[in-house]
């Protein structure tokens, strides 16, 4: 992977940061994207450069089409092209709420950040990937998103992500002949500090909700993404990969 460049949205902290560190260990140059976390983005860039790869940090909110376009153009200009796009960023409202109780602005923000912004960023970067006849696009969903079941009190977020499932599969077919793969990673309920922890760091800890028995970590997600980005993973495209430890967040809600 040496010499490849990855743009990871929402990567100053959390799962995006874990992914950036993992891809850097694989030899990738990294573009960090953030909205408010300028200090954390700068610190991560310094850490990545200390590992011997190039790094840049760009502020942009992918829920805003104009900022999305600027992010793509600036990333390509500064790094000479983007080979890997990891669409990690996406707004989420943790409070459970009936659809009728969402504000109009919340509906627009969730759909723009989780679906439209992802599509627009893909669209801007596909030209360069096609020209190089190589590309890796990773979308983020949620556990069991590929089944498109009802998820009460998560209507807007679920609709945006399940729409992204269909887009992932369609784009994978359309871009396969250009050497571009498109897949979706669906994390389990990985919260707080665990988003930046390693598997070793949670060994011995218990998560009673997860069938696997231990908490999920950022490393679990980053390892899956790293595998999908490898050159020899080019036969894997259009897939929706659950990385959940066996947890089914939707079915648990329906039972409750």
Overview of this protein structure:
Helices cover 44% and strands 14% of the residues. Helix 1 packs across helix 7, helix 3 packs parallel to helix 4 and helix 4 packs parallel to helix 5. It has 256 residues and is α/β, with parallel strands linked by helices. The protein has one domain: Rossmann fold (3-Layer(aba) Sandwich). Strands 3-2-1-4-5-6-7 form a seven-stranded parallel sheet, with helices on both faces.
Number of domain units: 1
Task: Give the oligomer, counting copies of the same chain as homo and different chains as hetero.
Answer: single chain
What do we call the CATH topology? Rossmann fold
Helix-strand string: EHEHEHEHEHEHHEH
- Specify the biggest β-sheet: 7 strands, parallel
Structural class: alpha/beta
Number of strands: 7
Radius of gyration: 17 Å
Distance between the termini: 45 Å
GO molecular function, one term: oxidoreductase activity
Protein name: SDR family oxidoreductase
Organism: Paenibacillus sabuli
Family: Belongs to the short-chain dehydrogenases/reductases (SDR) family.
Relevant terms:
256 residues, 7 strands, 7-stranded parallel β-sheet, 8 helices, single chain, Rossmann fold, alpha/beta
Brief rundown of the structure:
By secondary structure, the protein is α/β, with parallel strands linked by helices. It has helices spanning 14-25, 38-50, 65-79, 104-132, 155-175, 199-202, 218-229, 249-255; strands at residues 5-8, 29-34, 55-59, 84-87, 135-140, 180-187, 240-243. β2, α2 (38-50) and β3 (55-59) form a beta-alpha-beta unit.
